[in-house]
Amino acid sequence: MSAKTIPMYKRPKGLTDVRTHYCAGCGHGIIHKLIAEALEELEVLDRTILIAPVGCAVLAYKYIEVDGLEAAHGRAPAVATGLKRALPDKMVISYQGDGDLLAIGTGETIHTANRGEDITIIFVNNAVYGMTGGQMAPTTLEGQKTLTSPYGRNPAEVGFPIRACELLDTLESPVYIERTSVHNPASVRKTKKAILKALKYQKEGLGYSFVEILSMCPTNLGVEPVVGADWVKDAMIPWFPLKKFRDRPEEKKEEKQAS
Amino acid sequence: MTEELIIAGFGGQGVLLTGRLLCVAAMRQGKHVSHIPSYGAEMRGGTANCSVVISDEEIASPVIERPSIVIALNGPSVAKFESRIRPGGLLIWNSSLVKMAPTRSDLVLIPLDATDLSLAEGTERGANMAAIGALLKLKPDLVPMDAVEAALDEVISARNRKHNPVNRRILHAGYEITEKINAA
Amino acid sequence: MSKTVLMKGNEALAEAAIIAGCRQYFAYPITPQNEIPAYMSRRMPEVGGTFLQAESELAAISMVLGAAAGGVRAMTSSSSPGMALKQEGISYIAGSELPCVLVNVMRGGPGLGAIAGAQGDYFQATRGGGNGDYRTIVLAPGSAQELADFTVDAFDLADQYRIPVLILADGYIGQMSEPVVLPEPTGKTFEKPWALTGAKGRSKNIIASLKLIPDNALEEHNLHLQEKYDLISENIRRIDTYHTDNAEWLIVAYGTAARIARKAVDRLRDEGVKAGLFRPLSLWPFPDRELHEIARNAGKVLTVEMSMGQLVEDVKLSVNGEVEVDLYGRAGGAVPALDDIIERINSYERENHTHVQAS
User: Which of B23, B34, B58 should we substitute to test contact with C (largest number of C Cβ atoms within 10 Å)?
Assistant: First the structure.
């Protein structure tokens, strides 16, 4: 291989050159980078608006070089809906965590998907409320100890962890639903592909796409970063299987042409 | 002149339309008008009603506590509104349908076979037109007949405008029979 | 010029929003404002706009936030309990300095209350019902015509000051049909360099209410907001007065209550009693100096409201103890009775008379 053909690893154009506020071993930084890469590859950085959630990623718009907007806790899909309806030519990304997407924003999550809004949801599932200090999330695993489940999550009291992809897969409208992970390099590459696909579909106006990304929060697990990544593999994936649930762009293209 | 009317009946008897018709006719005559329906859950089941104010002056409240005129197209409407009419007020009631006749002695009570007058023209939906005819006869200062006839084309949707010749005939039938009632 | 048409207040408002260039409307059904979404669901497709029935009030106001951030004119409407839910988004919109128009066609409360018209959301509207130090301009129409006129105006005010503007009407104003001449568009345009349209040929725009860095960022932001609110308070002073010049007894009321009060003034004047009506058309900013000026010459001020002592607080703040202020409030869908207002003013006359005789 000549030097010319070796891909150089570099900071993507869409990623702001600043130090993030994320903890060591956190997955948000990786996911931000993947989004920035995908937006650059699709040449849509200058027509994308990123909606940041309330949660650890509340400052996400500081790190990605696109217009940024803040939503109230759980309302990012509704904010995205309003913005996309107003400016249908723009790319709108709703970046959300597990508390945001599956607890306080459950209504918005389901109805936005059901309407098939032409937006992309990036759902970062790390099984805990990070920003507020480690409370139980709707995706906290059975028996998992958190600040507000000190004896471990007890499904008899608070139900089982909710699977977002499976829930949304019952709806007709979404074009693309996939669950990936960022716990190791191979998974990161798959996640990149998923994000790229989701955004490409939006660029083509095919409607609602949803990428759930299992991610690690070693800080709130109280473990080393490496252990945090292993925990995603050993504890989360068995309950949240990595899977492509839905991928039907052709159908959507036909529908689009018909209408 | 200020008249405060309540028009009441079953859903489907054109109660709201009756109110709008009077308002538009009076509005085109330069009168002040307001129209407000009873809205939401309270109009389900029982009676639908609307309150109409027609006045030479600016209208204060569209909400009518003590009406000067009530048009009651069914029995429940008589039961509900008879007691609320001001002494000396007017109650036009649909004697085709109402079993319990109103009894107050301090009102002008006008029994009108409104549904029968409508059925004579081949529809049961024109009782409201007969009642307006009666009202115009009894309250000649309220709004003239030709204004109401003109308003029909403005108020009734394009889809239903083909019924306006029938509406006009029932309107006149109500007017003419009231002449007879009065004479009697 | 448009001709006079008989229009329901809610529908006049909806058409006026379209006239004003609003093409994004999001709402959740609630009585007594249901004619607005119904109207919009018919009209928006005709004019290439968006009507979307949201899954909740929380979602509807967030959709407005999103559309407004895109730099377009957006509106939502609701009624009292629904407005309570919207407070979350209103606070965010105020903090993010986005323009939009909000409509509250008020019904009785607290809680689910009832569907008949009321004015019990005066505090919610004028004090900022959500969290934090913020204001929304509040306009108080008293007829179907004013619903239409104020709505067109509201969109301009919202854009001019980057602030939510609330149209606060009681259910009777929204439900009543009256003669209306639909307003013309104002033709005003507003540059929106802050809008999120994609960072093409410019550095990226960020719209957020979170202000963490530096430490004093949030206080600085609040000071900036207060400056803006002060400017609005200087510029927006909207009132309507009726026989106030030599009024010995001054009535203060808005909406349906003011219509009845105006009739009371007529009747009292017929009897030789010098009554007058002060009708604030903007409830925030409240026209306090104007009221003070007029009220100081009156013997007493009577506040008539379809709530149990909300407007009266602004009246008292305005006259600042210089004039006695009385309250006649009705609630739960009841409207103030004409005779009750007249009797209240006549009782002041009698008291006054007795007092003069005794001394």
Answer: B34
What value does the CA radius of gyration of chain C take, rounded to a whole number of Å?
Answer: 21
Backbone angles phi, psi at A175, to 5 degrees: -95, -30
Contact A90 C198 (CB under 8 A): yes
Sequence-separated (6 or more) residues with CB below 8 Å from residue B38: B48, B49, B50, B51
Task: Kindly identify which residue of chain C lies nearest to residue A61, measuring between CA atoms.
Answer: C206
* C1 Cα distance to chain centroid: 27
Listed residue (A217, A221, A56, A215) closest to A146, CA to CA: A221
pLDDT at site C359: 45
Partners of A247 in the beta sheet?
A: A176
CA B148/CA B161 separation, integer angstroms: 14
Q: Is domain C241-358 given the CATH code 3.40.50.920 in the classification?
A: yes
Query: What is the complex's ipTM, to 2 decimals?
Result: 0.95
Per CB-CB distance under 8 Å, the chain B contacts of C262 are 58, 60
C contact residues 164-223, partner A, Cβ 8 Å cutoff: 196-201, 204-210, 212
The answer to whether the Cβ–Cβ distance between A45 and C206 falls below 8 Å is no
Residues 6 or more apart whose CB falls under 8 angstroms from that of A213 comprise: A27, A31, A122, A123, A124, A125, A179, A180, A181, A182, A191, A194
Q: Which helix (H) or strand (E) holds C357?
A: helix C338-358
Among chain C residues, the shortest Cα distance to A62 is held by: C206
Contact B65 C266 (CB under 8 A): no
Q: Calculate how close chain A gets to C44, using CA atoms only, in Å.
A: 12
Count CB atoms within 10 A of the CB of residue B8.
25
Amino acid B40: pLDDT: 52
- State the smallest CA–CA distance between residue A167 and chain C in angstroms: 17
Which chain C residues in 9-68 lie under 8 Å from chain A, judged by CB atoms?
23-24, 26, 50, 52, 54-56, 58-60, 62-68
CB count in 10 Å sphere of residue C25: 31
| Min distance C257 CA to chain B CA atoms (Å) | 8
Q: State which residues form the domain around A219.
A: 28-258
Give the residue-averaged pLDDT of B50-55: 97
Q: In this predicted structure, what is the pLDDT of residue B11?
A: 84
Q: Which CATH number fits domain C4-187+209-235: 3.90.1150.10, 3.40.50.720, 3.40.50.970, 3.40.50.150?
A: 3.40.50.970
Q: How far apart are CA A76 and CA B90, in angstroms?
A: 59
Domain B2-183, CATH number (from 3.40.50.2000, 3.90.1860.10, 3.20.20.70, 3.40.920.10): 3.40.920.10
Q: Are C252 and C287 in contact (CB under 8 A)?
A: no
Q: What's the pLDDT band for A69 if we cut at 50, 70, 90?
A: very high
Task: Tell whether the model's pLDDT for residue B47 goes beyond 90.
Answer: no
